[in-house]
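I am writing to request your help with a piece of structural work I have in hand. A protein sequence and the structure tokens that stand for its backbone fold form the material at issue. Please examine both parts with care and let me know of anything in them that strikes you as inconsistent. The record follows directly beneath this note.
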Amino acid sequence: MAISFNNCSTFMIFMVLLLPGLCFGTENYYYSKATYYKTSDGKGTPTGACGYGEYGRYVNDGLVTTASWKLYKNGAGCGACYQVRCKDKALCSDIGVKVVVTDSGEGPGTDFILSSDAFAKMAKHPKLAHMLFPKGVVDVDYKRVSCKYGNLKIKINEHSNYHGYLAIIPFNNGGYADIMAIEIYDAKTYKWIPLRRSYGAVFDLANPPKGDLKIKIQIKEGEKTKWIYSDKVVIPYYWKPGSVYETNIQIP
């Protein structure tokens, strides 16, 4: 049935009502390409540029990815989650796969190099995954999503040496905001001391203050930045390399 409009105003009202329906399902998605890398178990790698170690292999059940430089953000993009959907309608589902950034890397035109488990997860059915892999590089769309974690956790990097050198890695930071900076509180001097971003998600400090340590974290979402404080001790007086401590901080 043909639709007629008596005047321009009626047409404009119609288009305003129609556009949300036309845009449904594509809001906040960006177009790119993705490929995959192989490991012995199809999951992540412990040598990723974010510095996660073994956590980088198994976080999100191994559904992880490297990110292009623009998404890696010099390490601030570590731990971010993205929904990635292959555009081959014959092979790929409309849902795609949710992946966690654990590494930095890109190929020609690609923003994601997925673990092979994550690449296979984009298929409509596991039996179709074997037809997806030969393509090598596929067209995708993607958007930033929340990882829906709980409280932020802080791991003491294994290269730390009590109390001459402290390196920490924030885990569970998969909200919509990126961690830009971390400071620890020195109760003796009543001052906040900035940590250096060593690489990836690793922050460090030579000769850290003794005693129980509180932290504050600067996050950035879009163009807005703010500090989030812990109101309790996060790192105990006698910390140990490899230990993981839970904070009362959640990244939005």
Q: What stands out?
A: Residues 1-26 have pLDDT under 50 and may be disordered. The longest strand covers residues 178-186. The first helix runs from residue 8 to 23. The two ends are 48 Å apart (CA to CA).
